[in-house]
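Before drawing any conclusions, I looked closely at one protein, both as residues and as discrete backbone shape codes, quoted below without any editing:
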Amino acid sequence: MQTQANRASYETDIQHYNKAIRELPTFAQAYNYRGVAYGNIGEIDRAIEDFNKAIRLKANYAEAYSNRGGAYRIQGNYERAIKDCNTAIKLDSNLPEAYNNRGIIYKLTGEIDRAIENYNTAIELDPNFAYAYYNRGIVYHERRKYNRAIKDYAKAIQLRPDLVHPHNNRGNAYSQKGEYKLAIKDYDKAIQLNPDLVEAYYNRGMAFLHLQEWKKAKADLTNARNMQEHIITENFGKDYKNVADFEQKYSVKLPEDIAALLPPP
């Protein structure tokens, strides 16, 4: 989730690139980087326009093709996204961002082995590429290879301790292993980095629930519900049929006030 500080920083970048483009309208790199900034604030159509302009000015601009591929991916246009990533790699086979982008697209289209291959290549080209480790961790996580996922999340955190989601995701992997205290440490950090990350409150609340720390569980689940009305219903319902299902699975009886927060049968 983007914070107001992040958005302000990207908008400042956009003003910087606007000035550069006014002074030198054929400056392809300025269009490319302004496109990245637009993408970071969610203005994907404007980002694509800038990537198009960068490519028109510099036909062999691999980075702009890769970035445009990422923008098309966000729009759900996976065919055009793959095509752009392929072009980027053809122009520059040593561009790790293009492999990472293509890996994300393969993951989204269900080609998991090809996704991992692309993340591996991105990491081989740039062993300090935090996002490639994070994205590969997501794939291992979804395949229930929790230890490998935790290792990749940890590497991403080591390289970029300011990133929020690797902490939250590693917390989820620890929770899947029943290591709730370690999970809570990661959720704490995710919330410290982004106090508006609603899923971290829900996840931490569930971890406290497993530890039977009822007061803390209630506080986090209530906070999550207040921030996003349906988050408990949507997330709890993915894992359990109802409260009774949770209680039977973990041989626990929930306090009435906490059970009332959870979805009814």
Notes: The CA atoms of residues 2 and 144 lie 28 Å apart.
